[in-house]
């Protein structure tokens, strides 16, 4: 697969274009489903990019939407072909959050709030190993190893010299105090946090316990933004058996406003580095 083809992003862009064509014709997803003798849920999944789309699906939909320009049809067919190719993460087998990885791989910026653990993009290998083992007690050693490898590979976005991911992470103090993997693992992890926070495209802030209730008490979330203006931002909410992706403008706006409050109430980056150093010293003395 060409390195610049991201199947997840291709599906999203294709789905957005198919939705636009449907709306131009003034059709509902239910009406389209009736004409093609498929379920309405299939049309919805194709449009939101959560399902692979075949070239035959594109051809049939273009027929319903009466697209007469062959160049448009051929372009959409090519996008469908590319959307069925595999990203680097597929080499690791069945990854529960593969859709998110595809989005993260192509994102220009990521804002994340983590109340429990250090974000995956900032984890050391030892810390990631301990997190995966604790979070998935029934997983086999091979499955744990695979998940750790994927997590380490994801960090290439932070180290990408040409197009690094712009990362802003707000962590609750509990993520620092939770002794994942033991004291030495935590010392190394906190040192890693402060090291990465020195990069110009990475910002880390801590929300201390002393702040009390704050806009992040409802739990973890991430906001992804993309380099192409046509690609809408996505709010990602991680679940145990399924994940939620919010793309409606008012949802993204609500979470973005909440994140601004989080950033305003958390310790600033310099205070955060000092805070993390002090927590690391506590672990070193343990």
UniProtKB/TrEMBL annotation:
Pfam families: DUF5753 (PF19054), HTH_31 (PF13560). Gene3D superfamilies: lambda repressor-like DNA-binding domains. Residues 18-72 form the HTH cro/C1-type domain. This is Helix-turn-helix domain-containing protein. It comes from Streptomyces ovatisporus. Coiled coil: none annotated. InterPro entries: Cro/C1-type_HTH (IPR001387), DUF5753 (IPR043917), Lambda_DNA-bd_dom_sf (IPR010982). SUPFAM superfamilies: lambda repressor-like DNA-binding domains.
């Amino acid at each position: 697969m060409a390195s610049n083809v991201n199947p997840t992003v291709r599906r999203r862009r294709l789905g957005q274009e198919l939705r636009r064509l449907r709306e131009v014709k003034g059709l509902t997803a239910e009406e389209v489903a009736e004409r093609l003798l498929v379920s309405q849920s299939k049309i919805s999944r194709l449009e939101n990019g959560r399902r692979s789309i075949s070239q035959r699906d594109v051809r049939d939909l273009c027929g319903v939407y009466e697209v007469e320009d062959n160049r448009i049809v051929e372009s959409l067919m090519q996008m469908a072909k590319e959307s069925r190719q595999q990203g680097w993460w597929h080499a690791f087998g069945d990854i529960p959050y593969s859709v998110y990885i595809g989005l993260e791989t192509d994102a220009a910026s990521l804002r994340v709030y983590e109340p429990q653990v250090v974000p995956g993009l900032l984890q050391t290998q030892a810390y990631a190993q301990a997190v995966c083992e604790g979070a998935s007690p029934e997983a086999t050693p091979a499955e744990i190893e695979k998940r750790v490898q994927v997590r380490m590979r994801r960090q290439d976005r932070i180290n990408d010299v040409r197009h690094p991911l712009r990362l802003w992470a707000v962590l609750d103090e509990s993520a620092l105090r939770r002794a994942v993997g033991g004291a030495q693992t935590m010392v190394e992890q906190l040192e890693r946090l402060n090291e990465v926070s020195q990069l110009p495209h990475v910002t880390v802030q801590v929300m201390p316990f002393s702040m009390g209730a704050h806009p992040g008490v409802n739990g973890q979330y991430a906001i992804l933004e993309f380099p192409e203006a046509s690609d809408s931002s996505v709010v990602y909410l991680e679940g145990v058996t399924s994940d939620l992706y919010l793309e409606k403008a008012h949802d993204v706006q609500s979470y973005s406003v909440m994140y601004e409050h989080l950033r305003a109430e958390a310790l600033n980056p310099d205070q955060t580095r000092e805070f993390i150093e002090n927590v690391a010293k506590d672990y070193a003395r343990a």
